[in-house]
Amino acid sequence: xxxxxxxxxxxxxxxxxxxxxxxxxxxxxxxxxxxxxxxxxxxxxxxxxxxxxxxxxxxxxxxxxxxxxxxxxxxxxxxxxxxxxxxxxxxxxxxxxxxxxxxxxxxxxxxxxxxxxxxxxxxxxxxxxxxxxxxxxxxxxxxxxxxxxxxxxxxxxxxxxxxxxxxxxxxxxxxxxxxxxxxxxxxxxxxxxxxxxxxxxxxxxxxxxxxxxxxxxxxxxxxxxxxxxxxxxxxxxxxxxxxxxxxxxxxxxxxxxxxxxxxxxxxxxxxxxxxxxxxxxxxxxxx
Amino acid sequence: xxxxxxxxxxxxxxxxxxxxxxxxxxxxxxxxxxxxxxxxxxxxxxxxxxxxxxxxxxxxxxxxxxxxxxxxxxxxxxxxxxxxxxxxxxxxxxxxxxxxxxxxxxxxxxxxxxxxxxxxxxxxxxxxxxxxxxxxxxxxxxxxxxxxxxxxxxxxxxxxxxxxxxxxxxxxxxxxxxxxxxxxxxxxxxxxxxxxxxxxxxxxxxxxxxxxxxxxxxxxxxxxxxxxxxxxxxxxxxxxxxxxxxxxxxxxxxxxxxxxxxxxxxxxxxxxxxxxxxxxxxxxxxxxxxxxxxxxxxx
Lengths: 287, 299
Hints:
The complex is a heterodimer.
Chain A: H1 20-37, H2 43-70, H3 84-88, H4 90-100, H5 103-110, H6 113-118, H7 124-143, H8 145-156, H9 164-193, H10 199-222, H11 237-240, H12 242-246, H13 259-283
Chain B: E1 2-3, E2 6-7, E3 20-24, H1 31-38, H2 60-64, E4 67-70, H3 82-92, H4 97-110, H5 126-138, E5 144-148, H6 156-171, E6 176-181, H7 184-190, E7 193-198, E8 201-207, H8 208-211, E9 215-223, H9 231-241, E10 245-247, E11 254-258, H10 262-275, E12 279-287, H11 290-298
Parallel strand pairs in B: 3-6, 3-7, 4-5, 5-6
Antiparallel strand pairs in B: 1-2, 7-8, 9-11, 9-12, 10-11
């Protein structure tokens, strides 16, 4: 065996091209996605995201299994619409929004990464863009994954859309509904999480805002006698209502409310979350 | 630079040359504000700034790709291995993924953490974390490195090693360094240039060897004699009587005689000591130090 050793690895200058701002956004978004999913981290960090993912897919998998086993019997009301899949996985979505999404920004402020990121090509808007992309992409797995799986399952069982164009149309509506739901929940979760440097507090605050507002809206309408229009203040059901509207349907509780008002309610929640987020980070010292 | 009613930097006209430049000043002197302007994170309220030929407030993103930064804060993601941490920041600063991996490893070897590079940051000592901070600032091959209090929390041995490293990255790899510190002694040891700030005002700037190092008199230390308790006071009075400036409040029977005429000072001290029947323990040349720049500005 040779005794040769490398004593000085040296330091090389870099002559290639740099990826610039887009590369920085991509890198932070990917790093955040990995962090949210617990990839490259200890096993205990993977447990929760895996549970949330599994729970979100259970309804779609159950319906697919039923379709395979007793497909002929699943007719009429027993056969769910594509948009109903968003509602079936909503519990997992809320858990993700409250417990996993805050991971995306709270840790950076606590462990000094935010200040370091600000010394790179990133600025506050591009940093937040990277975080939004990471949270939305991860959330899309939970929100869009089940209905897409459901559509694919139906298609293989010859129960899906009849033509290619119909299929693309259904897929497009699923993706659009998923995008809308992810946008609202990402804005609210990041906005509320930006107010505290403690992840546990952020989770509690997100749950409090979402469930609190949802329950309040229901109480206003069902108990205090306010008009149905007030349901648009419900960030959970109001946002989920976008899905049936895209499929030309209406949820039971939102039957009398116009689509524009539904969109307005969701937009207001998105604006609320975005305003909190931007306002907080505008004041945050970078160095 | 104005924050509400507070003027953090005022009337600053600074030119920073190649090499290692020390940005010195007490806490609150404006060092961090200066660095944030250099990084393009804050636009100056008035005036212009140019760093590496770019206007930081207009081309901040482009500029920061060429700048490495080691912040003062010493808290990092505890679970992340040092190599992943350095690689990630190299990627964010624009390195392609495969290149970033290699450069992260090289940078960690350079700062003496080659064997430790896969250790999580949370298991590292303060000294090792400071080195990791330096490594991440270097990994993306910057043209300029900004280091904010890089020796903070280090013991004397670690501090010496860190200062040698900082000097090395400038002299051997041609990377310019702007080092922020409130420790004047370490700036005197490794810097080529200095920018001295006091309460937001420029105290001095320029080459360190021009600003300091000149003979400015002598330091005289007398041996205490039991039956001559007034000897020190008599020496001070005698030297002052010859028109020289004396600083006698230094303790330990020590005085400084200020002046540029070495012969005149030597004669005055000799005669004063003889007249007072005192005994000289030590007499050394007094060289101008960074501290004197600040004291001069405050007078």
